[in-house]
């Protein structure tokens, strides 16, 4: 029987990655701010999924009054709970559909960013040497790209669509993540148990999967959470600048239309919902991110 | 030390070259004919070719690239398609306009953030002040900058009418350099400036707070306390040592601010570089867009270089190699 009974064997085996992920998520529930953030996020996901069923009208359908004229800028009423836009669209329906774009862009971009920066960071930090030098010079170049100007130029040249916006956000935000994850890997790599496992003949893949990654899961989660926030903000800014996907409705685009048609002051029912939703979503993500930040920085823990 | 500076300089040049190259090919590979806007006004083929030649858009991509790099080296960005003027002439006043809201906005935001951040970091752990401070800072940090702008615009400009919400000055006022010293200009400056301050304060606040929290349990703080000085002076010791990350953060932040206030410039119709970049891209005025982008990238590289060098001066523990 090969029962791994010695302490050596246990040390070499390391931790399971999934276990470490679960543990990190559970840690969030001990932080009351993070719980608030998670609750808001959950609510937003539920609304985003059910948007097509709970939205009373098609988001781009022009509403008519009984006399057959375009129902422009109608204040909230029982037929239109949040009023209408200057094009006669139902604000509530546009607002509800906006949840989908925001969360879609946020989640897809964050997963892509998380994967790329983890691979970059781990390979660079763990193997070091020339690989590290080359990869870090690439991040140096990437880091000196001005974020918003680049996304404006790139989206304008590639064509404004949800896919291109996600692509541009991914190109922009892997770089900072790669740096942060790399430095976390650098500290882990020097730990005694990693050297021990290596000396005992564990493979690189085994060490990365069971020793390095489980211990830096919080750093990765922190970066993924922040990436969702950055992605939502970037999409909203681009849409506000008129570079959003014209075929789907997003909060930034609603605000762009309200702003460029000069109805900011009068049509409060059109301006407040998308603004508030953006603030709630991004702040909730920051509240969750902050909890990880306090966890990953031992000097911030309460003493 | 000298070797380090030289190496960092060489590295910066390399980075700028790489960014320029990426951008050049991005603009050229995309199918867009800059003369298309002029064709509508009835342009003969001959005149069109002459224009393309003048703009350096003839020949192979490689030739164009070499010519472009050559022109950049001598600081020639070409001429704007739209304004029919050298790009430099178009961009210089806009850069000054942007700096007018970026620099004071960033400095005031940092100072205010640092002051409140010290108070929050020094407050009792888990107490009311700490929790409210962190919560408010995190929520405000989550407000997109155009929402800040829209809110300020609706409340203080459209509803209360205290401040103008459009542009840099009323028509018929002073032009040129003198305009910056008129009350009218300051009146127009107020709202965009406040927007930048609100946008940058929370991050400074949180950074400062983390620094103070990290420092307050250090031994030297105990020593200061043992000397019997007032609470305020003890907090000041912790604050001073927490400013290091803040100061180094300020340099790259300035570059990112200039890039990031694009949206604020749009909301307040402030004629800055960022707004021009958006307009140039939508008008397909690529020389202007390219130059604006290049300048922003150079600013970020220089800011990072300055931050690295200043950090070593401020923190004697940093060793250059």
Descriptive report:
- The complex is a heterodimer of chains A (303) and B (321).
- Chain A is mainly α and 303 residues long.
- Chain A has one domain: MetI-like (MetI-like fold), CATH 1.10.3720.10.
- Chain A has helices at residues 7-13, 17-28, 32-54, 91-127, 129-143, 147-158, 162-189, 192-199, 204-240, 251-260, 268-296.
- The longest helix of chain A has 37 residues, at 91-127.
- Chain A is elongated and about 85 Å long.
- Chain A starts with 6 loop residues before the first helix and ends in a 7-residue tail after the last helix.
- Chain B has 321 residues and is an all-alpha fold.
- Chain B has a single domain (87-314), classed as MetI-like (MetI-like fold, Orthogonal Bundle).
- Helix content of chain B is 74%, strand content 0%.
- Chain B has helices at residues 2-29, 36-39, 45-54, 61-73, 87-122, 128-141, 145-159, 183-216, 219-226, 231-260, 262-267, 273-283, 286-314.
- Chain B is globular and about 85 Å long.
- The termini of chain B are close together.
- The mean pLDDT of chain B is 78.
- At the A-B interface, helix 5, helix 6, helix 9, helix 10 and helix 11 of A face helix 1, helix 6, helix 7, helix 8 and helix 10 of B.
